[in-house]
Amino acid sequence: MFRVVSNRKVTPNAHEMVVEAPEVARTAQAGQFALLMVDEHSERIPYTLADWDEATGTVTFIVLEVGKSTGDFVHRQPGDEVAHVVGPLGMPLEVENFGTVACIGGCYGLGGIVPVGRTMKAAGNRVITYVEARMEGMHYYLDKYESFSDEVVQTTTDGSNGIKGHGVDILEARLKEGVRVDRVFTIGCPFMMMLTAQVTKPHEIKTFAALNPIMLDGTGMCGACRCTVGEETKFACVDGPFFDAHEVDWHELRDRRAAYIFTERDVCK
Amino acid sequence: MKITVNDQVLDANEGESVLEVALRHDIEIPHICYHPILPANGVCRMCLVEIDGINGLPASCSTPAADGMVVHTETETVRNRRRENLELILLEHPSSCLVCYKREACQTFRPEKEKTGVTTGCQNCPNKHDCEVQRLTLDLGITDLPVGSFYRNAEFDRDDPFIENDPNLCILCGRCEQICQYHHDTPVVVLTGRGPDARVGQAFDLPLNASGCTFCGACVDLCPTGSLSDRFARWYGVADGLVKTTCPFCDAGCALEVKSEGHRVFSATALDQTKPLCALGRFTIPPFLSSRDRLTHPRVMAGERLREVTWEEAFTAVADGLAPFKGDTFALVCDRSGTVEDRHALRVFTEEVMDSSHYIEIEDGEEPRVELPTGVKAVLLTGDFLEADALDALEMVVVLDCYPSPAAEKATAILPAAILLETKGHLVDENGVERPAKRAVRPAGQAKQDHEIITGLITAMGDEGTAGKLTGEIETRIQDSEAELITERAEAPAPALDVTKIRTRYRGHLIAARVPDAGAVQPVAAPVPSEVV
Amino acid sequence: MDRSILEGNPHLVIEGMVIAAIAIGATEGFIFVRTEYPLARKHTEVALQHARNHGLLGKNILASGIDFDIEIVRGAGAYVCGEETALIASIEGRRGMPRPRPPYPVEKGLWGRPTCINNVETLANVPIIIEQGSEAYAAIGVEGNSGTKIFSLVGKIRNTGLVEVPLGIPIRKVVYDIGGGPLEGQKIKAVQTGGPSGGCIPEELFDLPVTFDSLTEAGSIMGSGGMIVIDEETCVVDLAKYFLTFTQEESCGQCPPCRVGSRAMLVLLDRITEGTATMADLDKLEQLAGTVREASLCGLGKNAPNPVITTLRYFREEYVEHIEKKQCRAFTCKQLITYTIDEERCNGCGACFRVCNDDAIIGEPKQLHVIDQDRCVHCGNCFVVCPPSLAAVVRTSGELTRYEEPVVKAKKG
User: Fold this and answer.
1) I need a labelling partner for C285 at 20 to 30 A (CA). Which of A108, A116, B199, C259 fits?
2) What chain B residue is nearest to A164 in terms of C-alpha separation?
3) Are the C-beta atoms of B90 and B23 separated by less than 8 Å?
4) Do chains C and B touch (3 or more CB pairs under 8 A)?
């Protein structure tokens, strides 16, 4: 069993869950994720590792409450236990000094982008972090971004905090002005990641997006997380989660994510 | 009376408000809190107009039309104030999606159906397909808000039976309180708190069942946002089937508007909104239809176990099994929950085919447990009507039912029955008038309606003549039916006003056993505040 | 005002109500008293009992065949219950919330019946008019505004308290003659009339006669009869914010202009007093004030922006100073004040060092103290404790710097 160390509501629908999982914390690298089961018979859900601490043996997830399993998880209080945490899974990010790196996060990606930015900074990159949220009060981790970013660009959809608009719009405007960006990493909903890909494609900037399909075993056996990248079938769990965003078939990703919506909906009552 | 609205001379009736006159003549004045069946409340301030001779901007919903009145609905002042007022409403409502300039692209890309724990924007709002705030915002083209959002970030109340209250979506239009007052005199759902803390809830924050709620669901029906919602229907969205029928739960005969998606009924609302429904009619039908342990396939005892078989096999097995019991050793027990046609078929089967005088129909309101007449050795049950010891004495039990019961465990055959909105025919209301029952959804699994099963049985018994005659009779009856729905009720049915009067059993099964919320609606004592103890 | 009448002479109100009842043929009367005024309630109760004992209330009053009795209803602390329809709802046992008019209470009031609803002071005037005749009453005050009015005169003046003046008297006379003028060394800036929903009238307009019409014209209201005098030490933006904070909290919550609009205005006022506003925010504030005023359902909402509207009308330059120069001339808006220590005056006594809760003052005893501006929360504690003989803490706001002159104590002996 894995003990929940803390549960903090960071936005109205997202919780920062810190769980004791020393083995995961010991070997985790930026870009990886872990699979978690709340109870012995719960759904297996992959969560991006938003942070980890080898010393305390804890890992941090940003959990968006969307249905039964995520709901069960975010209602676990400190001291409660979850049945399984399997990880770290997925390919770690390729880290080197690219020059200027743009990290774009939205929603749960506001947490997921932290290890990415931190690692990129450690490798000597200039890190610009773009964080977007719907409205005031839905940003979190600003202090963490400050610690590794050369610049933090904060946007909200309704303009209630920071610049009105989306992170990717600011990036687009800057690219048009001729600002140089060597690599882009994006974590968030498929729509946002798709937009990022569309913006960076004409400028031929390598863009990596963390795909978030439905996943089961996380070891490449079941094929639930199948996605098409550059007309090749890839498994997000073992080949990903980061893929070349310009090559991803976003519509397929969207459809596969919604495959069980009817069942998911029926257990919500 | 004549009034002039935007240079158009319109005829107005005594007692009509300016808004009503305008709407009747297809002049659109934006409004939220106004609802045709409710008295004007004038709180949303969307329907402000200018009227010559009246100071300021009166609300058109609460201003009675007077002869010679000159009304302007589209002057610059009116448009500006209306727009600014809606901007203010949007400040408290999660409106980031409404003012997002990527809204359309996002909407096209996102999957049709989505769900979320806490709604923070339109794209994952249960009400996104039918939101009055969204419609008004798009109509008025609002893209900017004066200050940052006042999102309430309040706890989402999910503990009440059937009804969920997400205060974060509420725009405090007050329709819920008004309709509650309208139906029940003293509103249960009320405005509490003041200023920035104002929200819709119950007095003293008590749960609904401790506040006197009858769960008529009228507040949910009238909520313009997704703030008050029906837990079962919440994530269904647009219906692909809409049927108007009679509520099959009791003999009040309320007319329902039933929405379905594919093979699922997900919501039933009152056709006549001026009278409330009871908790059963409004909320219980969809979950009762789709509870997990529904009997869906015919099964026949083979050795020690019940085995799934085809209908043909089941009919033959039952026909063969019942053959030795013709006469008074056979009895059939049913209650009045089926359609007139179904009960007719059951009676014909008992009296004419099985030649027995033991057709036992349990009256409404009776304890649904019967004692069988002496000498009965075989029985056909359409529900959970027999005590366990009565079953032991029987040689053959056939169960024609929707849910498992002690009888089903000892049955020679189980014939799954279509129930509630899966059936068609006629229901009799409390005045003895026949009301149409329309099929809103395909029966669960392979279930069939009682009369179809009975005619199948009769056929299997070799009496094709009777079967054909019966089928013909029933089909003609349904086809030639002139029965009408109760589109306007004179008064609310008793269970809609007193939740203790709702029916607790259907075909002898406890409804609350399948739909726990249906049991939780019963009133509980309000907890005594700790300082009093 | 009303409270003082009920506490001091409730008989007057009772008599007024009986006369009104005879005039309109009413049989039941209600006095709505705030629970927060127990003395007023108690005295009124005693007066009612006396009246009943003397046959002045109840069945067949003084054998005239007229039946009329009065009941006291306690309010539950909602400001909005001063609005007539909300008051009626409260008496009926419902939540005190205004409803749209028409129908007006005279057509459909309490329990749906025609109701005459008036303020305590109005009814208290009725017996006097009946007794002395309308001509004698009309001789007091000015045309169209006869009689007297009680004001609660408070604020930065020498004499505070309740004053009864004939209507039409110039404000100046009330403030300077009756109120005794400004405090030592100060200058009167304006007067806020009509309570939190009223408006602020600047000193230049003090020759204005106190009448219902002239006050309305000046953007204020007679309202409850409050007169709060402010001097140069009071910031008008802060004043407007103070009153708006009250009204937005007391909003019944029904209509968006009042509930959300006043809250949005407050956000903008906060920005102005914190120095984060832009000139665009000022335009927004004005526009919002207009919406709240014109679109609100009841008087509470319609009058809520009055303090903002009037201060913007008469003291706009102060708002602009806050925004453009980050300057509060009254030295009230904390975020716009910078505290520094004058090196020449500081003797290192350590008083400021000890009271600073945020460790923003660097220095050792007997050494010069310096304020770390990054940590300073502008609480002003150091300014307060710095001995007047030194006056070493200096306040700056925008372009203004305030040097207090050191107070030199006379030597002993």
Assistant:
1) B199
2) B100
3) no
4) yes
Q: Is C354 left (phi over 0), alpha (psi -120 to 50) or beta?
A: alpha
| 3 state SS of C15 | helix
Taking the C-alpha atoms of residue C163 and residue C194, their distance in angstroms, rounded to an integer, is 14
- Which residue among B456, B479, B502 closes a domain? B479
Strands A58-64 and A14-20: antiparallel
**Nearest-CA distance B139 → chain A (Å):** 18
B38 has a chain C CB within 8 A of its CB: no
Judged by CB atoms closer than 8 Å, whether chains meet at C248 and B85 is answered as no
pLDDT at C413: 46
Element spanning A222, H or E: none
Give the mean pLDDT of A20-46: 92
For an interface test with B, give the residue of C248, C255, C258 to mutate (most B CBs within 10 A). C255
Domain count of chain B? 2
Q: Is B406 on the interface with C (CB under 8 A)?
A: no
Cα separation values, B501 from B505, B520, B521, C385, Å = 12, 14, 11, 73
Asked whether residue B146 is assigned to any structural domain, the reply reads no
Question: Is the dihedral angle over the CA atoms A184, A188, A189, A190 positive or is it negative?
Answer: positive
Is B154 an interface residue toward C (CB < 8 Å)?
A: no
A221 touches chain B (CB under 8 A): no
> What percent of chain C shows pLDDT beyond 70?
98
Non-local CB neighbours of C113 within 8 Å, separated by 6+ positions: none
List the domains of chain C with CATH numbers.
2-130 (3.40.50.11540), 145-231 (3.10.20.600), 236-325 (1.20.1440.230), 337-402 (3.30.70.20)
Q: Which chains touch A (3 or more CB pairs under 8 A)?
A: B
Distance between start and end Cα atoms, chain C: 52
Question: Phi and psi (nearest 5°) for B444?
Answer: -65, 135
Return the residue of B nearest to C248 by Cα.
B195
Can you tell me which residue has the tokens 């990493």?
Answer: A185
C-beta atoms of A137 and B153 within 8 A: yes
Chains touching B (at least 3 CB pairs under 8 A) are A, C
Tell me, what CATH number does B325's domain have?
3.40.50.740
Whether C244 contacts C293, CB under 8 Å: no
Whether chain B has a CB inside 8 Å of the CB on A159: the answer is: yes
Binding partners of C (≥3 Cβ pairs within 8 A): B
In a domain? residue B62:
yes
Nearest CB to B113 within list A166, A194, A258: A258
pLDDT digits (tens, 9 = 90+) for B111-158: 877 888 888 888 888 888 889 999 999 999 998 888 888 999 888 888
**Interface contact B115-A66, CB threshold 8 A:** yes
Residue B311 lies in a domain: yes
Superfamily of domain A2-89 in the CATH hierarchy: Translation factors (2.40.30.10)
Instruction: Report how far residue B221's alpha carbon sits from residue B281's, in angstroms, rounded to the nearest whole number.
Output: 13
Q: Is the CB of C277 inside 8 Å of chain B's CB atoms?
A: no
This prediction has a pTM of: 0.91
- How far, in Å, CA of A103 to CA of A154, rounded? 12
Give me the torsion for CA of C101, C105, C109, C112, rounded to 10°. -60
pLDDT in tens, C156-168: 999 999 999 999 9
Mean pLDDT, rounded, for B12-24 = 94
C43, C6 contact by CB (below 8 A): yes
Taking domain A100-256, whether its CATH number is 3.40.50.80 is answered by yes
Asked if B332 and B356 touch (Cβ cutoff 8 Å), the reply is yes
In a domain, B357, yes or no: yes
Beta carbons of B62 and C296 less than 8 Å apart: no
How far away is chain B from the Cα of A56, in angstroms, using its nearest Cα?
31
**C161 vs B: CB within 8 A:** no
